[in-house]
Design brief:
The chain contains nine helices and 13 strands. With about 280 residues, it is of the alpha/beta class. Strands 8-3-4-5-9 form a five-stranded antiparallel β-sheet. Strands 12-11-10-13 form a four-stranded parallel β-sheet, with helices on both faces. Helix 6 (about 205-215) links the parallel strand 11 (about 200-205) and strand 12. It is globular. Bound molecules: NADP nicotinamide-adenine-dinucleotide phosphate (NAP). The site of NADP nicotinamide-adenine-dinucleotide phosphate has 24 residues, from helix 4 and helix 5. NADP nicotinamide-adenine-dinucleotide phosphate (NAP) binds near residues 251 and 253.
């Protein structure tokens, strides 16, 4: 039976417990007609995986393979042509089920079920093999290594939906604020917005992270520990566009109150609220 790694339940309160890892054996997968079996080559971490070990994440599952991001090669497929077409391909997996492409959120009446150490989805990428519906895989980008491709889906998809799809402001010359640039989603949001030609501004608690963000394409950055960070940010904006077109924020709190004042009047306020709600899923 192929191995996987899961968390084992021990006594302890959320926040003070740190669940140990254990190797588990999972049944050798037999693909259904529309399934593919992937031999995983790389899996990637998100902050949620640490939260799971600390029991600071909802619906955690013991004995369920951990991690939601992975890349590998399809080694077996069900009988349907859509599944057969993936045989031998290097792929990444959709980190969850129930949400294909609807703009207003998951299509499934039971909602989005993220994989990796949860009760709501039996799969995880910290495993040797994974069986999954062929509709939940995508070709791994040829220019990325297995480790790089594995790191793309969850943070990348979240950042793409927030920055490009939801704000509608991934347009040259727009001013986008991405908060907490040390975060995984924030870095992807910066890369997507900068590639689209936006002027991207960032916040961070770290001068080093602000400097790195500029190397990655940010037009400027401020330290959110600074009590005047909003005034400093306003001063950085170009004289012909003294407002933010959108904010992509994963932290909430202070930035919502101060950031709202800098947003262009109109629908962009909705964009800020949408991003917060999307990213808190
Ligand atoms: N990771 C994913 O794939 C994913 C998927 C769906 C939704 N989300 C949601 O997206 C958000 C970000 O997730 P993430 O995984 O990218 O988080 P993360 O890697 O933990 O990054 C969070 C960043 O937020 C900043 N931050 C922390 N406390 C702050 C505060 N009080 N005020 C302002 N900024 C603060 C920090 O930035 P600095 O280090 O620069 O100070 C930190 O690095 C979360 O709400 C998460 O639930 C994440």
């Amino acid at each position: 039976m192929p191995p996987a790694i899961a968390i084992r339940k021990v006594e302890g309160k959320p926040g003070s417990v740190y669940y140990p890892l254990e190797t588990i054996d999972v049944p050798t997968p037999t693909p259904g007609p529309n399934d593919v079996v992937i031999r995983l080559a790389a899996a990637a971490l998100n902050h949620r995986d640490l939260f799971i070990r600390q029991h600071l994440y909802p619906a955690i599952g013991f004995g369920v393979p951990l991690l939601a991001d992975g890349a590998g090669v399809v080694i077996a497929a069900g009988t349907n042509p859509a599944a057969q077409a993936w045989l031998g391909a290097r792929v990444v997996v959709n980190p969850g089920s129930g949400w294909a492409d609807a703009l207003d959120g998951p299509e499934s009446p039971t909602g989005y079920a993220i994989m990796g150490g949860t009760k709501t989805n039996p799969r995880g990428t910290l495993a040797e093999l994974m069986c999954i519906d062929a509709g939940e895989v995508e070709a791994a980008p040829a220019g990325l290594s297995d480790a790089e491709a594995a790191a793309l889906p969850l943070a990348g998809l979240t950042a793409w939906r927030a920055t490009v799809v939801k704000t509608g402001n991934a347009v040259p010359g727009r001013n986008i604020l991405v908060t907490g640039i040390g975060g995984g989603v924030a870095i992807m949001a910066l890369l997507f917005a900068a590639a689209a030609g936006c002027r991207v501004y960032v916040t961070s608690s770290s001068e080093e992270k602000l400097a790195r963000a500029k190397e990655l394409g940010a037009a400027g950055g401020v330290n959110y520990k600074d009590k005047d960070w909003d005034k400093k940010l306003l001063a950085m904006l170009p004289s012909d566009r003294k407002y933010l077109d959108a904010i992509v924020d994963g932290a909430g709190g202070d930035v919502v109150f101060r950031g709202m004042k800098m947003l262009k009047v109109g629908s962009q306020l909705l964009a800020l609220l949408k991003e917060v709600s999307l990213m808190s899923r």
